Predict the structure.
Amino acid sequence: MKWSPAWTRGPRTARVPGVLLTPFGCLPALTAVLAVLLLARGSERAVTAQPAHPAPSTVPVAHRAPRPVILPRSAWLDRATLRRQPPPRYDDRVIAVFIHHTDSPGDYDCADSPRIIRSLYSGQTGARHWDDIGYNFLVDRCGTIYEGRAGGMDRPVTGAHTQGFNHRSAGIAALGTFTAGTSVPPAMTDAIAALAAWKLGPSDTDPRARVRLVSTSGLSRYRSGTAATLPTVAGHNDAYRTTCPGAALTATLPAIRAKAAHLQGRGR
């Protein structure tokens, strides 16, 4: 995407609180015993009753990948640059990942990555009047991963990276320009694969599969409301009329999908 300078317990023995026994001493012995037994039975029912709202299932997801090291927004965003923004928006899960390039110079020193991301943020929130940077994550040529859009890197934050398909997806931007003939650093593609494997893990989505997404914008390759079947790990150009993420980076997507699947513990 081009930047514009986006858990049953069996019943336990019911106890009768001491404070409730005091009044029973005033009753005849048999009456007192019956009262205690009735109270105990009532307490046991309360203990074994099912909750009105059962706890969410804690059945483990079959294919999870470890979380890679991700630098937080504070690594690149300072107070002077930060703009006021509305609360983040969320989806129920992430079932797709879109890969982008930032179409910015690629001959940078990796120590300069925070400045470059800050510039992308300023362009998107300034000239384009977006509420935040559109990408959920950014990866530099050294394989360093940065948190992009606010809302929590562990959560399914709705981004602004792939028009029509921002829901149930995460956007990962490679810092640089990766048109035909450009070299794509292995450290970068390895990091993208690790990040994709981790984000798709909670929904148990195979990075090598295809997923069904519904377009929300007629400006995408699909009319609004149209269901599209796309690669789980897709290029921006699979959903939008653009050359992003560049021919060179697009050519690495099969390898990225295979590595991400391996990191999830999936066989061939």
Remarks:
- Residues 70-263 form a domain with the Lysozyme-like fold (CATH 3.40.80.10).
- Residues 1-57 have pLDDT under 50 and may be disordered.
